[in-house]
Amino acid sequence: MPETLIRNADLVVTMDDARRELTGADIVIRDGIIVELGAGLTAEARAVIDAGGCVVTPGLVNTHHHLFQTLTRAVPGAQDALLFGWLKTLYPIWARFGPEEMRVSALVGLAELALSGCSLSSDHLYLFPNGARLDDTIEAAGEIGMRFHPTRGAMSIGQSAGGLPPDALLEDEAAILDDCIRVIDRYHDAGEGAMCRVGVAPCSPFSVSRELMRDAAVLARDKGVMMHTHLAENDEDVAYSLATFGCRPGQYAQDLGCTGTDVWHAHCVKLDAPEIALFARTGTGVAHCPCSNCRLGSGIAPVHAMRQAGVRVGLGVDGSACNDSGNIAAEARQAMLLQRVAQGAGAMSARAALEIATRGGADVLGRPDCGRIAPGKRADIAIWDMRGIESAGSWDAGALLLAGPTRVRDLLVEGRQVVRDGQLATLSLGEVLGRQRIMAAALADAD
Q1: What residues does 62 pair with on adjacent strands?
Q2: Are 333 and 117 in contact (CB under 8 A)?
């Protein structure tokens, strides 16, 4: 079988178990797997990629996104709101989406991620208006060539029952669980190297019932898939939990079976010390979304304390209506800077932030086959050209997050080139962006 050879990299940051960094290194890829790593390698290569002047890292991993939101960036009325006000502004707009809006927004969001070095992304889709289905985003990921972990979200408690979303966006709980079974049976691949795994993801404690949260956890474990939701995102979120459930969010999650190595929660900005200890003890993962947390004024998540306690932490860009970018490399830099603001300059190094963005995120998603450059691991590889103005004068690989670049030169997913010379290689991005502009304008005109 022909091989791919990445040769002559200035530095390969492996994120393997020994955290090796290799200078002047080559990588041999066969059948989507890294088979050899070292200097002066040869191969019967179908393709040779010269990485001279570049830093090579594992592909970055995005553990939380709402891809449908790329059609609603910078919406007036939502730009300066806290979480609950922001949601109330946007729910009526999202209610006008359909299958094509979901597909196109996913294509744009995944393309944006790929150009920032992301090879594996989750997505949390929790509303399905006008015939939209999770299938729309899964098909988009296949077009891009991205490794994908979509989650079937849901909302079932609306304003008439004390919840946040409008009743028009709600689904029947039995129908939600049935559709979870459908998409898992159709798309979920539990095998090593899977390109698509499906998770179960009730939206949040303020938009689904206690019963649905519990039943979703039971279903996820019966099917052997992971579970995801939002938790402890801001002070409003915690206050709702205390007033409605009589306990903090971490306790609520534990009571309903929503902690464990097969669970990861988004945000967790307001976890307190006992909740951090709970997550560490149970192996529960966290998707840290620093830019979104800043944009919505939610606060700085205690990531330094989480990592010190042994909590598994990955990065998420969150939705493009609350970030408003989808650049995972920029997200890693922001994570590093925020922890330094909160805890001092030693709280997070550039390499620690890169680790969270690679193997950290892969581990949160239950993918130890990804997030590392090592023989036997999947060939998800990002190549960063360090000869541009962003990193000019840099002495060290830490420049990748301290200075830049934030756009990848080449990205391989399962050994296939998704980004080549800074351009998406798998579809015509210009055509997709043109379609997106028309859709966004139609949504704005109807508002």
Answers
A1: 121, 315
A2: no
| Cis check: omega of the bond before 324, within 30 degrees of 0 | yes
CA atoms within 13 A on the CB side of 386: 24
Alpha helices per DSSP H over 129-195: 134-144, 173-187
What is the spatial distance between Cα 13 and Cα 439, in angstroms, rounded to a whole number?
A: 40
Consecutive H or E run containing 445: helix 429-446
CB 126 within 8 A of CB 439: no
What CA dihedral angle connects 104, 109, 111 and 114, to 10 degrees?
-160
Q: How many CB atoms lie within 10 A of CB 389?
A: 9
Place of tokens 């129908």: 175
- At 141-195, the pLDDT tens digits run 999 999 999 999 999 999 999 888 999 999 999 999 999 999 999 999 999 999 9
> At residue 76, what is the residue type?
P
What are the chain's domains? 3-59+372-424 (2.30.40.10), 60-364 (3.20.20.140)
Assign 129 a pLDDT band (cuts: 50, 70, 90): very high
Distance (Å, whole) CA 415 – CA 350: 27
Which tokens sit at 361? 């995120």
